[in-house]
TrEMBL record:
<feature type="transmembrane region" description="Helical">
    <location>
        <begin position="60"/>
        <end position="82"/>
    </location>
</feature>
<keyword id="KW-1133">Transmembrane helix</keyword>
<feature type="transmembrane region" description="Helical">
    <location>
        <begin position="180"/>
        <end position="199"/>
    </location>
</feature>
<dbReference type="GO" id="GO:0016020">
    <property type="term" value="C:membrane"/>
</dbReference>
<keyword id="KW-0472">Membrane</keyword>
<keyword id="KW-0812">Transmembrane</keyword>
<dbReference type="Pfam" id="PF13520">
    <property type="entry name" value="AA_permease_2"/>
</dbReference>
<feature type="transmembrane region" description="Helical">
    <location>
        <begin position="147"/>
        <end position="168"/>
    </location>
</feature>
<feature type="transmembrane region" description="Helical">
    <location>
        <begin position="405"/>
        <end position="428"/>
    </location>
</feature>
<protein>
    <recommendedName>
        <fullName>Cystine/glutamate transporter</fullName>
    </recommendedName>
</protein>
<dbReference type="InterPro" id="IPR002293">
    <property type="entry name" value="AA/rel_permease1"/>
</dbReference>
<feature type="transmembrane region" description="Helical">
    <location>
        <begin position="219"/>
        <end position="238"/>
    </location>
</feature>
<feature type="transmembrane region" description="Helical">
    <location>
        <begin position="28"/>
        <end position="48"/>
    </location>
</feature>
<feature type="transmembrane region" description="Helical">
    <location>
        <begin position="372"/>
        <end position="393"/>
    </location>
</feature>
<feature type="transmembrane region" description="Helical">
    <location>
        <begin position="116"/>
        <end position="135"/>
    </location>
</feature>
<dbReference type="InterPro" id="IPR050598">
    <property type="entry name" value="AminoAcid_Transporter"/>
</dbReference>
<dbReference type="GO" id="GO:0015179">
    <property type="term" value="F:L-amino acid transmembrane transporter activity"/>
</dbReference>
């Protein structure tokens, strides 16, 4: 009798209905993938970064060239990541590729600096931009209260976290909707700019390549501002295990998205310079709003709302993609196991999403994060360069490894060399922020050797930690994946 029951129990376990099995499901098709990339790339950057690009490049023509080159460089990087995403079928993006090609220490350091410093800084910056664009129109021409901007920013972050905790499908649909809204915002800027250009408004483009004010040490900062606006092309790689037919949809989504974004970004900047002089652009803290007041007087009040929704879309994309890196890191034993668990009903990586929330809140309340763009960019681009270098090393060491999509060698080499060059030059251009970035990254080395490489902390601490993890698992209703998804 006992044997029969045991066999029935085994059989029942095997025959568990497919829709009840707890795992991350492949729910992201081509349109959501394109929307995910475009929606994450097009955030606050294109409405704020033009000032930084112009300030550090020194002329209209050179700033437009920087925008175009940043787009080409981002496309090259995205193509490299298309190869990585189809070669290694795990989610996790940068972390997974560093782990597979260069080993566990670089992968752990990427995880460490991303989640404790870089991601909260970027999310805080975008959410504050969201709050500012929502609040400022109600107080114009007076200065909006900083406290109110922060409260609205916190509400925006809370909404995005709630959506991503509730449902993968809801987060994906939210992203598609917000992407269409933000592309409409860009079209609304481009059209009047092109009309003015056709009518002969070209005075700001005359002598566009005067480079009297250009200095070599500032040029990397111009690229950092431009690349910040293009940042996000790698987020699809964070959710590889949830993309339908990734061998086909990865390259298609990446190529279409990055070409579209590059064309739109260059046209938006042309529109800005058609309506505004370089001096006016440098004086503006909200370039899109200044543009709307000049060229779209009847719709000027709509632009801040569209920009705010654009920021919300970038925030949603970040909270959707980056927790998957933490999820995979925990699954590989590089982070506490609780973060590799999924909600039993919602099928979302709930603990990994929730971890970001208090970190972003701390940076939001502190508020002193605007100088962290260079800090965040250094860490991000250094590890991206390491990942593509790892790809080249892996190609050499394992030439027979399946690569459904293979980027031309020249593109991979150019991208890797340019990334290391920009990162190296930035150490000279902005030694304070890049030095801090190096220091924060290196703080992960002792943590790795104390907790991951070999656990050297007292057993009492380990027992307390395990007890807390167990209680959290019960409270959050989360368990490990029941099937392998890669």
């Amino acid at each position: 009798m006992d044997g029969t029951q045991a066999r029935k129990g085994e059989h029942g376990k095997k025959e568990k209905p497919k829709d009840e099995v707890v795992h991350l499901r492949r729910e992201i098709g081509l349109l959501p993938a394109v929307s995910f990339i475009i929606g994450t790339v097009v955030g606050s950057g294109i409405f704020i970064a033009p000032k930084g690009v112009l300030m550090n490049s020194g002329s209209v023509g050179l700033s437009l060239l920087v925008w175009a080159l940043c787009g080409v460089l981002s496309l090259f990087g995205a193509l490299c990541y298309a190869e990585l995403g189809t070669s290694f079928t795990k989610s996790g993006g940068h972390y997974t590729y560093l782990l597979e090609t260069l080993g566990p220490l670089p992968a752990f350091l990427r995880l460490w600096v991303e989640f404790l410093f870089v991601r909260p800084a970027v999310a805080s910056y975008v959410s504050l931009a969201f709050g500012r664009y929502v609040v400022e129109p109600f107080f114009a021409p007076c200065v909006a209260p900083t406290a109110l901007i922060k409260v609205v920013s916190i509400l925006g972050v809370t909404f995005v976290v709630a959506v991503n905790c509730w449902s993968v499908t809801m987060a994906s649909r939210t992203q598609v909707t917000l992407t269409f809204i933000k592309m409409f915002a860009l079209v609304l800027i481009i059209v009047p700019g092109v009309i003015a250009l056709v009518k002969g408004e070209t005075k700001n483009f005359q002598n566009g390549f005067e480079v009297d004010t250009l200095t070599l040490d500032k040029l990397p900062l111009a690229f950092y501002n431009g690349l910040y606006a293009y940042g996000g092309w790698f987020y699809l790689n964070f959710v590889t295990e949830e993309v339908i037919n990734p061998n086909r949809n990865f390259p298609l989504a990446i190529i279409f998205s990055m070409v579209t974004v590059t064309v739109f970004y260059v046209l938006v900047n042309v529109a800005y310079y058609t309506v505004m002089s370089p001096a006016e652009l440098l004086m503006s803290d909200a370039v899109a709003v200044t543009f709307a007041n000049r060229a779209l007087q009847g719709l000027a009040s709509v632009i801040p709302i569209l920009v705010a929704l654009s920021c919300l879309g970038a925030l949603n994309g970040g909270f959707f993609g980056s927790p998957r890196m933490l999820f995979v890191g925990a699954r590989e034993g590089h982070w506490p196991p609780i973060f590799s668990m999924i909600h039993i009903h919602r099928r979302t990586p709930l603990p990994a999403v929730l971890l970001q929330y208090p970190l972003v809140m701390l940076m939001l309340i502190n508020g002193e994060i605007y100088q962290l763009i260079n800090f965040a960019s250094f860490a991000r681009w250094f590890f991206i360069a390491l990942a593509t270098l790892g790809m080249l090393i892996h190609r050499y060491r394992f030439p027979l490894h399946p690569r459904p999509f293979k980027v031309p060698l020249a593109i991979a080499v150019i991208f890797t060399v340019v990334c290391f060059f920009i990162v190296g030059l930035s150490l000279y251009s902005d030694p304070w922020n890049t030095g801090r970035s190096c220091a924060f990254t290196l703080t992960g080395v002792p943590v790795y050797y104390l907790t991951v490489h070999r656990f050297r902390l007292p057993n009492r601490l380990k027992h307390i930690f395990n007890y807390c993890s167990w209680q959290l698992q019960i409270l959050l209703e989360v368990i490990q994946q029941e099937v392998q998804t890669y």
